[in-house]
Amino acid sequence: HALREAISAYIDMPKGMILAGNGADELIDLILRVFVGPGDGVLNCPPTFGMYAFDGALQGGRVIEVPRGDDFSLDVEAIEAAVERERPKVLFLTSPNNPDGSLTPDETLLRLLRLPVVIVVDEAYAEFAGHSVIQWVRDYPNLIVLRTFSKWAGLAGLRVGYGAFPENIIQHLWKIKQPYNVNVAGAAAAIASLEDVAYLRANVAKIVAERERMAEELTRFDFLRPYPSRANFILCRVIGRNARELRDALEARGVLVRYFNKPGLTDCIRISVGRPEHTDRLVEALARV
């Protein structure tokens, strides 16, 4: 109750519309348990966070994929056609998207909310974007918004996520939720974080500023094409050379970046935003590889 009260004050939403979980991953699983039975459709828009397809398949659902464009934008007409054709129960959208950091435009979400499908917007990186649609849950009975303390508050290992749910949905989640799903240490850390929001927001502002500086620095390299990001990382398309080999060359110089061996991302690396000295070290290594 104390955690939900603290979250309620932070996001300015009624406590009765909030459910906390053992990370947002648990809430994804619970949502699918409520809505999806064997053979039911789960609409996914890759490249994106992998847990939607993973949990959808575990639940016996049909994972229907509508790929994003080369710029990672949603193919709205293809989503509409898939909803009409496949009649999925749930559509998952990450905003900002993981792994590229793009934000779903409000007008796009408003258009999709007219469809006969429950839409789950995963806002794991919302604090870095400075934009959220969590208040929309008050007005749309088919909208769920998920958030987490893992990114902006740095509590990934303590596993604390939460969601805002319409009342007609949250009542069913309470029936199947494990009674002690959020551990005591995680709850205490999340409450403490919300008691010092000013400090954490100052950290977020530093990361956002460094993100913009890093993006500008990355444009100096003709073998990288950084994508605009509203998260705490920057995805780069690697041009004219092998992305995996670039990752390995940077690692040999003590700089760790992520390589995705997945469709649509095999020629990409993703770089997390850190301190200014980390950016400087990255730029120095890129100039030498």
Describe, in plain words, how this protein is organized in 3D.
- By secondary structure, this protein is of the alpha/beta class.
- It folds into two domains: 2-195, Type I PLP-dependent aspartate aminotransferase-like (Major domain) (Aspartate Aminotransferase, domain 2); 198-286, Aspartate Aminotransferase, domain 1.
- Helix content is 40%, strand content 17%.
- It has eleven helices and eleven strands.
- The chain has helices at 2-11, 24-35, 51-58, 76-86, 106-112, 126-129, 167-176, 184-194, 197-218, 243-252, 276-286; strands at 18-21, 41-44, 62-65, 90-94, 118-122, 143-148, 161-164, 224-226, 233-238, 258-259, 268-272.
- A seven-stranded mixed beta sheet has the order 1-7-6-5-4-2-3, with helices on both faces.
- α1 (2-11) runs parallel beside α8 (184-194).
- The longest helix is centred in the C-terminal third of the chain and has 22 residues, at 197-218.
- It is globular and about 55 Å long.
- It starts with a helix and ends with a helix.
- The mean pLDDT is 96.
